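During the no-cost extension, the postdoctoral fellow (Dr. R.K.) reprocessed legacy sequence entries with the updated structure-token encoder. One reprocessed record is reproduced below for audit purposes.
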Amino acid sequence: MIAFFTKYKRIFFIITAVVFVGSIFFISGQIFSSSASSAVADVGGKKIPYRQFSMQVNRMVSNLRESGTDTNDALVKSVKQEVFRDMVIEELFSSQAGKMDMQVPDFEVAVEIQNTPQFREGQSFSPRLYYQTIFKEFQMSPPEYEAWRKRARLASKFKQLIYTTVKVTPKEITAYYLLKNKDLKKFEKEKAKYADELSKDKFANLANYLLRQLTSQIEIKNYLELREQGR
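Re-encoded structure tokens follow.
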């Protein structure tokens, strides 16, 4: 345990040093303009930056192109809708998790960063590569990136909490299996697979129900069309 925290302390010392050096360039160069802080959405008073939205859309579209997919206008529009929805859901879930006093310790984010392949050179974490990658790929400073990862992990914890409340009974598994198959000949062999499918279906239904409840209670403002028009 002592060895872990000694290692963890060193990681954050390095990251802090990188942030300090980087901040000089941010202040002197004014890299981020005021328009970069424009929101693509407002979720209960919490603004989601359009810059962050655009970067995620661009990364998804780029990955699709690299896989040989024809990224026509219809597909790009679909990607934008998917990213927008995911970012709003992440904000809703992380906010609910915060209200329930769920937390993500700093060391969890530090370990995630240390183990992210894009931030490693060989077998070691590279502060230089970390800083360069998050700026190039996300247009974020280390504090911004780490705050984002903390919110994402918080939302994931809330989703995991929802999933743990999902229960399936033997009768439900049997009935679900019969909906997909004519008989029970292979039931015992495939029961675990179908139980997992049913759990995921019930989780999706529960999560969607919860989202409908949250969106009826929390005001969500959509600025995507305005941002796309340059306003």
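The chain has a mean pLDDT of 84. The two ends are 52 Å apart (CA to CA). The remaining legacy entries will be reprocessed before the final report is submitted.
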